C-alpha cells in the first residue's frame, strides 16, 4: 500500500534513459513539407472575425466569406520561431513548476472533464458535480506523479459556468498548475484570467509565472472552434500558455494513414500556434495529437489501438521537429474498456511507455478515467499511478559502471554463495524494491499478503480524502475568486454566449 | 565499561558490521567481560531490534542477513570462551535441510537466517540430504525441530520418508517436523503427518515458535 502520511504537494516527472524514434529524419521532413503545402493550398477554417483579421494583417491569404486562412510556409515559420521550446507552467510554489521542455522528463496530467462519475460511497453512476472536482483535485494534490491538472469532471450542478466553477474547485484544492480545456469562449476566458491574476497577485506576475494554461481542441479536419480560438486569443494576450490538440480519427476525420493524419494534425495545431504568436510573441504553446479509429462495423470511436497510439508517438517527433513542446495524448481511460477490464492494463502501459521513451514533455496520466474519458472513478487513479511507477523503473534502463559491474562482489562471494547478506544488496534493495505499491496490505513483512487491489485502493482514497489538507489560498484571494465566479454566474452576456439564451 | 561494549556490540549487529562485531567481542574478552552477558545484553538485543525493524517493514532481508552474520561472527569468539558448561539461552534447536535429490536451498537458507535472528539455534545440514543424514543431525544435536525443504514434486515425497524414519528411530516425541517448498501446502503437510507447513521464512518463524510452545 502506498505510504499514507500527510505531506505537502510535490511533483515528480519521469525521465527516460531509453529512447525511441518512430519516424526517420527524412520522413519527418516529408510530413513537415506536406503540412506546409496543406496550409498554403488547402488552409484552415478560423470561424472568428478577430482571428481572420489578425491573419490578414500579417499577410496570410484570408477568405473572409468562407472564414478560410491559407498560410505561406515562410509566414508560418516566421511565427513558429517565436514559440518557445522551453517555458514554465507555474505551480503556486516554484518547486511545483512544470518546466516544459527543459529535459527534466515527462510531466503527467490528471485530466478528463468527464461528465460522469462512479459515486465513491454508493457505487452509482451519476452526473458529476463541483464537489467531485474538488475531491479529485485534493487526490491529485497528494500524489507526486501528478504535476498538473484539469478540473477532472464537469460541475453539472453549476450550469453554463461549470468550467469556471471547475477552476475554482481546483484552485481551492491544489497548489499545482491548473489547466482548462472547457473555457471555450472569450467572456469565460476573461473571468478565468481574472481568477489567475488574483492568485498571481497582478498581471505582471501572471505573465511571469502563469498558474493557468489552456488546451484547445481543433476540429478535424482543418478547422478551429470559434469559442475556443477566441478564448485562446485572450489567454495568449495575458501570457497564459495555450496548447492545441488535434484529434484525427483515421479514416473518418483524417486520412486512414498515420502520415496523412499527422499532416492534418500539424496543420491544425501549427496554424493555431501561429495565431497566438502573432498576438503575443513568446507565449508558451504545445502540441497534442490524439488520434483515434472507428470500429468499421459499428462506427464506435476508439482512442486505444496500436495504430492510433503509434500515430500519437509520431506526433511527439513532429512537434519537436517544429520546435514546439508536446503533450502526449493517450489518456489513461482513453479506451472503451469497462471497469476492471484487463484491456485497461496493457493499453495504459504501452501507450505511456512509448510516450515517455519518445520524449514527450508532458503526457496525460493518472486520471482515474474509464470509457473513453467519460467516467471518473476515484480509486482508478491509483492503478494508473501503479502503471507509471513500473514505467518509471523500466525507463531508467541499466546503469553500467565499475560499481554496478560488481567484479569485486562476484570475486568475494565466489561459488555457490549468496549475495543476500552483502552490503551492496542491502543498499540496492532500498531503491529497486517498489515500496509504494497498492498490491500489498501494508508495509510489514508479516502483513504482506495479497488483497484485492480495488479494496486497497478504496481505502487509500478514503484516507486521502479524510486526511490530506491541501495548502489553502490566502482567504482574501479565495474570496476574490468566489466573487469572480459569482459575477460570472450572473453575467447575462455569458449565458447568451454559451447557452444561446 | 561493560555497558558501553554491550551497546557497541548491539549496534554492530544492527549495522550488520561483522568485522566490527568480531573485534568488539575480542575486546570484551580481553577486558574480562562475561561472554554470556555480552551475548544477552549486546548481541541478542541488537538482533531483536533488527527483527522488530524487519517486522515493521523498516529494513529488508539483506540487512537482516548482515545482522545475523555479524551476530554469528561475534558468537564465534564469545561462545568458545564460555566456562562451566554455560550456554546462551535459545528458543529451540532446529535441524534444517533440503531433502535428497533436491539442490534448491535459497528458501531453506532464508528460513535458517530468520530463525537465527529470532533466537533459535540452527544446524543447517545443507541440500540434497538423505533421510539418514537428517536423523543423524537430529540425534547429535538433540534437536527439537526439524525443517525439511523440497522444491520439486519429485522430491517432496522425501519429506514423508523423513517423517516415517523419525518415527522408526523413536524420535517422533522429541522432534517436531515442519515442511516447506513450492509444491508443498498445508493439506500435504497434514497428509504426511508433519507438525506444520510454512509458506515463507516469516511464517516459518511463527510456526517454529508455536511448535516449541514459546512466546514471540
Condensed summary:
The complex is a heterodimer of chains A (501) and B (216). Chain A is 44% helix and 12% strand.
Quaternary organization: heterodimer
Number of strands of chain B: 5
Strands in their spatial order, largest beta sheet of chain B: 2-1-3-4-5
Radius of gyration of CA atoms of chain A, rounded to a whole number: 23 Å
Overall pLDDT confidence of chain A:
92
Rg over alpha carbons of chain B: 18 Å
Contiguous runs where pLDDT drops below 50 for at least 5 residues of chain A: none
Shape of chain B: elongated
Secondary-structure element string of chain B: HHHHEHEHEHEHEH
Strand content of chain B: 5-15%
Q: Percent range for helical residues of chain B?
A: 40-55%
Tell me which protein chains meet in the greatest interface and how many residues each side has: A-B, 16 and 20 residues
Description:
The complex is a heterodimer of chains A (501) and B (216). Chain A is α/β, with parallel strands linked by helices and 501 residues long. Chain A is built from 18 helices and 19 strands. In chain A, the strands form five sheets. An eight-stranded parallel β-sheet of chain A has the order 13-12-11-10-9-6-17-16. A four-stranded mixed β-sheet of chain A has the order 8-7-19-18, with no helix packed on it. By secondary structure, chain B is an alpha/beta fold. Chain B folds into two domains: 2-81, Methyltransferase, Methionine Synthase (B12-binding Domains), Chain A, domain 1 (Orthogonal Bundle), CATH 1.10.1240; 93-211, Cobalamin-binding domain (Rossmann fold), CATH 3.40.50. Chain B is built from nine helices and five strands, in the order H-H-H-H-E-H-E-H-E-H-E-H-E-H. Chain B has helices at 2-15, 18-30, 35-55, 61-78, 106-117, 131-141, 157-168, 186-191, 201-211; strands at residues 93-98, 121-124, 145-149, 176-180, 196-197. Chain B has a five-stranded parallel β-sheet with strand order 2-1-3-4-5, with helices on both faces. In chain B, strand 4 (176-180), helix 8 and strand 5 (196-197) form a beta-alpha-beta unit. Chain B is elongated. The mean pLDDT of chain B is 92. The chains are: A alpha/beta (501), B alpha/beta (216). The interface between A and B is medium-sized, with 16 and 20 residues.
Amino acid at each position: 500500500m502506498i505510504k499514507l502520511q500527510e505531506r505537502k504537494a510535490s511533483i515528480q516527472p519521469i525521465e527516460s534513459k531509453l529512447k525511441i524514434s518512430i519516424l526517420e529524419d527524412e520522413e519527418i521532413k516529408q510530413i513537415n513539407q506536406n503540412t506546409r503545402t496543406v496550409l498554403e493550398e488547402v488552409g484552415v477554417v478560423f470561424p472568428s472575425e478577430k482571428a481572420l483579421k489578425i491573419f490578414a494583417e500579417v499577410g496570410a491569404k484570408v477568405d473572409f466569406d468562407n472564414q478560410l486562412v491559407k498560410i505561406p510556409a515562410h509566414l508560418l515559420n516566421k511565427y513558429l520561431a517565436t514559440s518557445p521550446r522551453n517555458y514554465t507552467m507555474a505551480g503556486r510554489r516554484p518547486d511545483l513548476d512544470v518546466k516544459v521542455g527543459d529535459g527534466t522528463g515527462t510531466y503527467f496530467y490528471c485530466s478528463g472533464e468527464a461528465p460522469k462519475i462512479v459515486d465513491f460511497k454508493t457505487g452509482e453512476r451519476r452526473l458529476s458535480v463541483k464537489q467531485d472536482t474538488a475531491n479529485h483535485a485534493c487526490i491529485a494534490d497528494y500524489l507526486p506523479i501528478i504535476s498538473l491538472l484539469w478540473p477532472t469532471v464537469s460541475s453539472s450542478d453549476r450550469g453554463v459556468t461549470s468550467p469556471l466553477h471547475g477552476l475554482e474547485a481546483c484552485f481551492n484544492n491544489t497548489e499545482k498548475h491548473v489547466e482548462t480545456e472547457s473555457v471555450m469562449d472569450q467572456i469565460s476566458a476573461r473571468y478565468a484570467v481574472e481568477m489567475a491574476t488574483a492568485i498571481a497577485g497582478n498581471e505582471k506576475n501572471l505573465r511571469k509565472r502563469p498558474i493557468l494554461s489552456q488546451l484547445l481542441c481543433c476540429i478535424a479536419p482543418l478547422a478551429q472552434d470559434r469559442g475556443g480560438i477566441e478564448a485562446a486569443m485572450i489567454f495568449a494576450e495575458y501570457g497564459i500558455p495555450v496548447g492545441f490538440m488535434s484529434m484525427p480519427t483515421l479514416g473518418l476525420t483524417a486520412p486512414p494513414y498515420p502520415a496523412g493524419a499527422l499532416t492534418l494534425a500539424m496543420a491544425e495545431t501549427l496554424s493555431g500556434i501561429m495565431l497566438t504568436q502573432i498576438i503575443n510573441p513568446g507565449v508558451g504553446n504545445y502540441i497534442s495529437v490524439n488520434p483515434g479509429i472507428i470500429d468499421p462495423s459499428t462506427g464506435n470511436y476508439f482512442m486505444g489501438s496500436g495504430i492510433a497510439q503509434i500515430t500519437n508517438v509520431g506526433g511527439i517527433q513532429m512537434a519537436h521537429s517544429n520546435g514546439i513542446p508536446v503533450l502526449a495524448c493517450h489518456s489513461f481511460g482513453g479506451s472503451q474498456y469497462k471497469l476492471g477490464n484487463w484491456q485497461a492494463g496493457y493499453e495504459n502501459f504501452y501507450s505511456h511507455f512509448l510516450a515517455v521513451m519518445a520524449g514527450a514533455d508532458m503526457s496525460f496520466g493518472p486520471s482515474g478515467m474509464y470509457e473513453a474519458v467519460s467516467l471518473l472513478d476515484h480509486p482508478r487513479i491509483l492503478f494508473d499511478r501503479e502503471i507509471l511507477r513500473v514505467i518509471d523503473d523500466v525507463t531508467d534502463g541499466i546503469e553500467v559502471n565499475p560499481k554496478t559491474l560488481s567484479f569485486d562482489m562476484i570475486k568475494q562471494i565466489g561459488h555457490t554463495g549468496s549475495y543476500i547478506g552483502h552490503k551492496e544488496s542491502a543498499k540496492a534493495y532500498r531503491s529497486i524494491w517498489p515500496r509504494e505499491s497498492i498490491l500489498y496490505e501494508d508495509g510489514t513483512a508479516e502483513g504482506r499478503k495479497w488483497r484485492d487491489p480495488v479494496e486497497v485502493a478504496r481505502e487509500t482514497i478514503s484516507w486521502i480524502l479524510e486526511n490530506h489538507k491541501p495548502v489553502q489560498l490566502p482567504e482574501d484571494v479565495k474570496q476574490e475568486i468566489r466573487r469572480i465566479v459569482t459575477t460570472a454566474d450572473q453575467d447575462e452576456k455569458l449565458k447568451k454566449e454559451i447557452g444561446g439564451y | 565499561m561493560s555497558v558501553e561494549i554491550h551497546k557497541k556490540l548491539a549496534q554492530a549487529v544492527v549495522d550488520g558490521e561483522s568485522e566490527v562485531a568480531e573485534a568488539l567481542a575480542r575486546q570484551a574478552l580481553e577486558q574480562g567481560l562475561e561472554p554470556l552477558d555480552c551475548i544477552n545484553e549486546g548481541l541478542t538485543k541488537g538482533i531483536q531490534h533488527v527483527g522488530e525493524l524487519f517486522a515493521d517493514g523498516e529494513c529488508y532481508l539483506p540487512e537482516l542477513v548482515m545482522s545475523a552474520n555479524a551476530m554469528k561472527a561475534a558468537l564465534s569468539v564469545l561462545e568458545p570462551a564460555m566456562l562451566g558448561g554455560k550456554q546462551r539461552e535459545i528458543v529451540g534447536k532446529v535441524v534444517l535441510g533440503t531433502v535428497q535429490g533436491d539442490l534448491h536451498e535459497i528458501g531453506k537458507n532464508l528460513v535458517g537466517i530468520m530463525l537465527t535472528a529470532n533466537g533459535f539455534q540452527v544446524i543447517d545440514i545443507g541440500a540434497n540430504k538423505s533421510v539418514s543424514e537428517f536423523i543423524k543431525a537430529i540425534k547429535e544435536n538433540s534437536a527439537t525441530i526439524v525443517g525439511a525443504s523440497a522444491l520439486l514434486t519429485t522430491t517432496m515425497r522425501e519429506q514423508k520418508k523423513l517423517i516415517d524414519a523419525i518415527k522408526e528411530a523413536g524420535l517422533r516425541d522429541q522432534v517436531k517436523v515442519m515442511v516447506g517448498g513450492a509444491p508443498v501446502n498445508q493439506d500435504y503437510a497434514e497428509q504426511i503427518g508433519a507438525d506444520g507447513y510454512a509458506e515463507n521464512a516469516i511464517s516459518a518463524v511463527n510456526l517454529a515458535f508455536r511448535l516449541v510452545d514459546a512466546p514471540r
